[in-house]
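for the record, two folds in this file. i put them one after another cuz i was lazy. first one right below, seq on top, structure tokens after. the second one comes after a little note so u can tell where it starts
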Amino acid sequence: MRTGNPDEEGQENAGKVPQTNLRPLYILRTVAEAAVPLSAADLGAALDLPKPTIHRLIQTLEEDGWLMRDLGGRGFVAGHMLRRMSANTFSGPGLRRERIAILQRLAEEVGETCNISMPDGDAMIYVDRVETHWPLRIRLPIGSRVPLHCTSAGKTYLSTLSTAQFNRLLRRLDLSPRTPRTITSPEALSAEIALTRERGYGADNQEMVDGMIALAVPIRDDLDRMFGTLSFHAPVQRLQPEDALQYLPLLKQTAAELAATV
């Protein structure tokens, strides 16, 4: 996690126009550190760059996938290339060993498979995983992409979006059923996400895979932004949804430990 004083850093960089070859990096850093989407005007003001320059740089970064427009269409957020680089950094050998050790402890206490996932467009992607020792388990390897509307991780991510962002994304989501329990109507999913936001965790009650349940909580950075989710899933033969809630405090505690490794 960052240990510097943001105010001091801002004062240090104030009034300094980035060197030409470093300007794209400064734009990406500014977007990555922002708690909200930033407009071209915001970025130009933050970096003291003229309007034509900032628009040209943003256009290039957007075309190459480093930036993308937010769901409201008025600002810019990290694109898939920047998110992928972040995920690769997150998966670096040293950090990954520490995270796997934390995941291993959680998996041993819960007795089920535990996962870390990150948003990737209209899906969640598994970036780390520790399997349960039980022979009866669901195998979803690292790199698997799972839907947003029927997974605990996906619902957790959706619950962190603003209402406008969620509604915009909802219009393009494929709500195809995976099981008879999958939520397939926009109205029902909106209600489910509102409940998820209120209670602070996402739940999957046999909505993605018959016979599998899951719980997820957000992993947040030091600016309280969600950058990933922590979840576990289990077959209903071993764990009923109401019994899974006993592990919620441990899940939240472990998410805080994982956040401290970033």
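(here's the note) second protein begins now
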Amino acid sequence: MPSVVYAEHDGVEIGLDYYLPPGNGKCPILLWFHGGGLLMGSRKAAWSHLRNAPDKHGLCMVTADYRLAPQTRMPGIMRDISACLAYLRSSAFASETGGRVDQSRVIVSGGSAGGWLALLLGSGVGFEASGLEAPEPPLGVCAIYPITDITAPFWTTPQHRAAVAEYLDPNAQETSWCPPDSPRMQMYSYMLQEAIEQDLVIGDCGVPASAYSIAPGIVSSKFKLPPTYIVHGTQSEDVVRAADGAGLDVTFDVLTGIDHLYDKDPKYEMDNMYRWIWKLLQRA
């Protein structure tokens, strides 16, 4: 698949990969952000249903990196995801793809922390607090078992340091990805064990963690979501209740007896999500 650097900050290149469907027609764009608590991971960890989306569902599939915490705090990550969406709408990406993409139809997705980023992009929550202008929202959002509020007890109640110590230093070299065999991949478990997600992602950036909480933002009536599909996740229920109360178009797909990251298993083809995407595209 082709790779592109969509942004660069302080010498750190931030990339994306894209996959085009066969044929010559213009296709909608599905942008996906990886999970990992915003601490680890890479765009290369796209599950099979995402890799199959171009051929099976006729979508331009884009998987994107962003700079990782704690070397980059939340405002910097917000800057990255906004830059990614802007790039997908740019003449540069149109040229890169040979005019094959319909840039008016971008849907943003992600799993876990990536689902949180998708919801932030869709709603505009957190951008003003980060000193940024909120981008024009995407056509829709697909949030897969998303984080929605790191002030919740799950993230603030403690659950071995040596393996991840070098990655906990906020002054260490910034990075936008890590390989799957890196010790950094232990950071998520360590973060849960020590309940330090806020310290790592927010730190001393001067913005309260609550500024990035999705449901309170919607309840405030300051923020809205475009049509949104959410699957799994108990925190997501708060977002769905808030969206229902605001009269927003949110579909909540509750699956029982499955684990976090369940769609990593190739047997889960996420057909409900892709059906929802095409219903939305047909209305647009």
